[in-house]
Design a protein that fits this description.
The chain is mainly alpha-helical. 55% of the residues lie in helices and 5% in strands.
């Protein structure tokens, strides 16, 4: 692989067009975004002198130098094989765009890429975390502890807020944050479809929504996902699932209690609402997950991986099949893509913080006048809430 000694005839690659997905081809936008992010990382860390270059032609014309400096930088910073593989993929993509697919240099990059992919697959087969997964993976027990901390902080504020607790948007967001993490840790976690769940009043209504939850009682909390996900058909299930209860009763009970408490405290039509009483956007909830930790980039996929990594070594074949069904994937994919080696101990060590039912509330004693104001505030809040919702639904 040598740099061109004289400038060949190539298709110029505009940086603006590259960033606007003009060269996407059959790739998804997510794949193209990965390419764009790799290029930005190159500029920020390795090739700052090219930051003002309006084209990406320099990568094609100086392949040898580019590849050498990339490998040197990755080696000096002890970065992973997966990172190098992404570098090679981007170089190969740019060369294909510039000179076409049927040239010798492209074949050489393909051979190199295949070798790196094989090495990457070997590592994946050993269920080891790759570099990207290291940035987002949080052990299951740590997630439970984080959930408990968030819930306890909300509960303390809620119980010591004498007035207007129902109108306090920040207090409500803290509750939604605890609920969101509970939903994705205490039951086999779905993908993003759970972020759009509506609260409905009947089974019939649940079947008409893209994603819905019907809370009949604590033993019947039904979830409906009525869209197709990666060729998996729509499903409906009771959170009080007998198979999941057989190995994880305390977590399922905790989830159901948290949902019922949240909906009772903050009546609404969507499970996850923002400070304006409106349903959160997917991006908003994804950001909420991302902001849960300063050290890890928590997301839906990493939560799915944490759940699988903790439970798969502990459950039987029937339970594995049920987990796979509820996560809308296959058992094979659970073991291949989600199971990661961890050092977590026995499930019996877990003691999740349950919702406290106490006869001695932490709330300071109120005067009779404050009590009357409190009741009136709550009554007005619910009246205004339902009057508003009647016009919106």
């Amino acid at each position: 692989m040598l740099d061109y000694k004289s400038k060949p005839q190539i298709t110029s690659i505009s940086k603006k067009e590259f960033f606007n997905y003009k060269f996407k081809g059959n790739n998804t936008e997510r794949t193209e975004l990965n390419y764009i992010n790799v290029y930005k990382a190159w500029i920020n860390n390795i090739f700052p002198s090219e930051s003002s270059n309006p084209t990406l032609d320099w990568v094609v014309l100086k392949q040898n130098e580019v590849l050498h400096r990339l490998l040197q930088y990755r080696n000096d910073n002890n970065l992973s094989l997966e990172t190098i593989r992404k570098d090679i993929n981007l170089i190969m993509k740019l060369v294909k765009i510039a000179v076409g697919e049927r040239v010798e240099i492209v074949n050489k990059y393909k051979i190199l890429q295949m070798a790196l992919s094989k090495m990457h697959e070997t590592k994946e087969q050993n269920n080891e975390l790759n570099e990207d997964e290291e940035k987002s993976f949080v052990p299951y027990k740590d997630l439970i502890n984080l959930r408990n901390k968030i819930y306890e902080e909300w509960q303390d504020k809620y119980e010591t807020t004498a007035l207007n607790k129902y109108k306090n948007p920040q207090l409500r967001i803290e509750n939604i944050k605890a609920l969101l993490l509970t939903f994705y840790t205490c039951f086999p976690p779905s993908r993003n479809e759970a972020l759009n769940i509506e609260i409905v009043d009947s089974e019939r209504q649940g079947k008409t929504k893209d994603a819905a939850i019907y809370i009949k009682d604590k033993n019947n909390v039904w979830v409906y996902y009525n869209d197709f996900k990666k060729k998996h058909p729509p499903i409906e299930f009771n959170l009080a699932d007998t198979v999941i209860l057989s190995y994880s009763r305390k977590y399922v009970d905790l989830l159901i209690e948290t949902i019922i408490e949240s909906v009772n405290d903050y009546p609404r039509k969507h499970l996850f609402i923002n400070s304006k009483d409106e349903p959160y956007t997917e991006k908003g909830l994804q950001k909420m997950l991302y902001d849960l930790s300063k050290d890890k980039n928590i997301g839906v996929n990493s939560l799915r991986s944490s759940y699988a990594s903790y439970w798969l070594p502990k459950v039987n074949a029937n339970q594995v099949q049920r987990i796979a069904y509820l996560m809308r994937t296959s058992a094979a994919m659970l073991y291949k893509n989600y199971l990661k080696k961890t050092n977590e101990g026995s499930e019996e060590e877990e003691k999740p913080k349950t919702i406290q039912q106490t006869t001695t509330p932490k709330t300071p004693k109120l005067t009779q006048q404050q009590k009357e104001e409190f009741k009136q505030n709550r009554k007005e809040y619910f009246k205004k809430y339902y009057e508003t919702k009647k016009t919106n639904y």
